[in-house]
Amino acid sequence: MDEARTDQLHRDGGDGPPGVDPGEAELADRFRLALTRIHRRLRQQTGAGLTPSQAAALASTDRLGSPTLGELAALESVQPPSMTRIVGALEEKGMVSRVVDPADRRVARVTTTERGRKVLDENRSLKTAFLARQLHRLTADDRHALGELTDLLERLGELSDP
User: Fold this and answer.
1) Using one digit for the tens of pLDDT, what is the confidence trace for 99-119?
2) What domains sit in the chain, N to C, each tagged with a CATH number?
């Protein structure tokens, strides 16, 4: 751990959360920061002139099928008026459409258009290509280690909360 981070932990009153091994807390902190940086760089790999928020909303819409604006706003952790603007921009680009909920005509649902699905596929390809270029810069041994780490990350993602 770098000195600045160690100093910060000590100023914060210890080596990590109560009841957590200090070494595990340090690893968790480094891991979180590394994931955050990688995630941020991946979010920047978008095409079709989408902002990261628009790309995330488009992907969530496609994954959920036909969410309401409120459901989408909650999932993306934004206020409903912000989601209305995001969806409006996506609608102008022809990537989503709003449809009236047949069960409750007062509710609008958002669906992904064919153009939106094509953009999502392109964005996934851009992100994969970005990671592949980054991996190419590593040594063969580092790529092998990353493959093993990926197995661990997949298992970590499947663990339930304690």
Assistant:
1) 999 999 999 999 999 999 999
2) 52-118 (1.10.10.10)
CA 15/CA 75 separation, integer angstroms: 33
- How far is the C-alpha of 85 from the C-alpha of 91, rounded, in Å? 10
* pLDDT of amino acid 26: 94
The residues of the chain scoring below 70 in pLDDT are: 1-16
User: What is the SS3 string spanning the chain?
Assistant: CCHHHHHHHHHCCCCCCCCCCHHHHHHHHHHHHHHHHHHHHHHCCCCCCCCHHHHHHHHHHHHHCCCEHHHHHHHHCCCHHHHHHHHHHHHHCCCEEEEEECCEEEEEEEEECHHHHHHHHHHHHHHHHHHHHHHHCCCHHHHHHHHHHHHHHHHHHHCCCC
> Which pLDDT score, from 0 to 100, does residue 113 have?
98
